[in-house]
Design goal:
mainly alpha, 12 helices
Length: about 260
């Protein structure tokens, strides 16, 4: 049982209906830590799977590096199904699979499985759409230079689409924070579990307000960080005048051509 679950269970046995104001930080801060751990694990999985899968779906499409209409359509449908299901329905529908993978259907481990599936489907589409915005000229220049398909994907596609991918990753991370709150309903711990158990079931408004403030602050911090990274990774910023003497990027080679 998570630290948050223990605190909640202990408080439920108490005689008081509300948590004393002085004890609220001791309740919500560990819950925030559990939420951040949960989201961090999920996003590591999402990035590890979503980037290569998005690049694969993009390059299997007509005009891609290795066209395959049948495989592209199959993967595209699978991703679309995973993205279209509301998270609460997805979480309930794959409970047997979650139990097989983690050995349980409650707690952080059980929440990571449906959150990862939903996040991968969403992020795969983000990567695919970001790669579509890369000018075809860059790919042609990379091909003419003798680059392998993996090198083309890494240097001519992902490199140029990186700001857009980071922007999409920011949105995806915020969505996972929201999903972690929903996962609290299955005993996953975190802010969502505290908000439901105290703010909703016990009508503890101070605790509910504290959880809302923490969630808003966390989302704002993620958004500001993501926006800053996207600006720093913008191709124009990377081609600033002070960066002389370095190797030309694929976009610069295309522009010179």
């Amino acid at each position: 049982m998570s630290a948050t679950n223990v605190l909640v269970a202990s408080a439920l046995r108490a005689n008081s209906n509300q948590v004393p104001l002085a004890e609220i930080p001791a309740l919500v801060l560990p819950a925030l830590g559990e939420t951040l751990i949960m989201v961090s694990i999920v996003m590591a999985i999402v990035v590890s799977v979503g980037i290569p899968l998005g690049a694969l779906v993009h390059n299997l499409a007509p005009g891609g590096l290795f066209e395959n209409a049948a495989l592209h359509q199959t993967l595209s449908w699978v991703v679309s199904i995973g993205r279209s299901l509301p998270f609460l329905i997805l979480m309930a529908a794959i409970v047997p699979f979650t139990r097989v993978v983690t050995g349980t259907n409650i707690g952080i481990a059980a929440a990571v499985v449906p959150m990862s599936i939903a996040g991968i489907a969403f992020f795969t589409r983000i990567v695919e759409n970001s790669l579509r915005s890369v000018p075809p000229t860059l790919v042609r220049v990379a091909k003419a230079s003798g680059a392998s398909p993996v090198q083309i994907i890494r240097t001519a596609q992902l490199s140029e689409a990186l700001p857009s991918i980071v922007g999409g990753l920011t949105i995806n991370t915020i969505a996972m924070i929201e999903y972690s709150a929903i996962a609290g309903t299955i005993g996953a711990g975190g802010i969502g579990y505290v908000a439901v158990t105290y703010g909703y079931q016990r009508f503890d408004q101070p605790v509910m307000l504290a959880t809302i403030i923490l969630l808003v602050a966390t989302v704002a911090a993620v958004q500001l960080t993501g926006d800053g990274l996207a600006r720093a990774l913008n191709p124009q910023a990377r081609r600033s005048p002070g960066r002389r003497g370095r190797a030309l990027s694929a976009s610069e080679v295309a522009a010179a051509a």
